[in-house]
What does this fold into?
Amino acid sequence: MEFEKLNSILPSVILIAKTAGAFIQNEREDFSLDKVEVKGLNDLVSYVDKTSEAIIVKELQHILPEAGFIVEENTLSEKKEYNWIVDPLDGTTNFVHGIPCYAVSIALEHNNEIILGVVYEISRSECFYAIKNGGAFLNEKPIKVSKNKALKDCLIATGFPIYNFERIAPYLKTLEYFMRSTHGVRRIGAAAADLCYLACGRVDAFFEYNLNSWDVAAGALIVTEAGGKVSDFKKANNWLYGKELIAANRNVFEDFSGLISQNFV
It folds into this structure.
């Protein structure tokens, strides 16, 4: 798809993300824990996730009728040449408990490559977005990853595993190193936001496993368009569907990814 076409549909995708975000924030005012369902171990969902997804899917169908969908709550799952990858509420646990930082994430994929990404972090009304080869933006202002050149000067973001604890030993080993050898580690609770915070230089590097495509698709494009680099734990390119991701500014990427690769062999 040509850049001009992507650029023409981007404002509509941003509006859809913000519309879903407004619904989510409004529902948070009177939300209670008795409205929560459990999909799996520590995996929460509510009518808010499901309704947000329905809103997003319905509107995206008007923008690009020929596209398929890869969505978290299965409102519509049908893979085609072009596919919308949607997380209607990334950071559901934060939302449920009333903790700021939860987001809407929408990406457009073509042949396993992300070509458009929008992440709307609802609590701060921050809209991050990018088109392939078009740079990355936050609320219409260009953003770039940090310029730190040594891990000792970096702030690291991660996501704690909430299921599949078979890799907990290498994860804790890696976490200990970063606790001792960097400015610290932050667990924000929404991978889409983690990646966008990396893209605008608030953190310098991020890693997590147990991820799904809708958690990372939009944010990863925003990182790369902001000058960062993304891979899986083997420093290969299977991050979109491989359920693991490393991202960092290019100055520290080799050291950061090398340590993770070594620990997760």
Notes: The domain at 151-263 is CATH 3.40.190.80 (D-Maltodextrin-Binding Protein; domain 2). The two ends are 38 Å apart (CA to CA). The chain has seven helices and 14 strands. The longest helix spans residues 3-28.
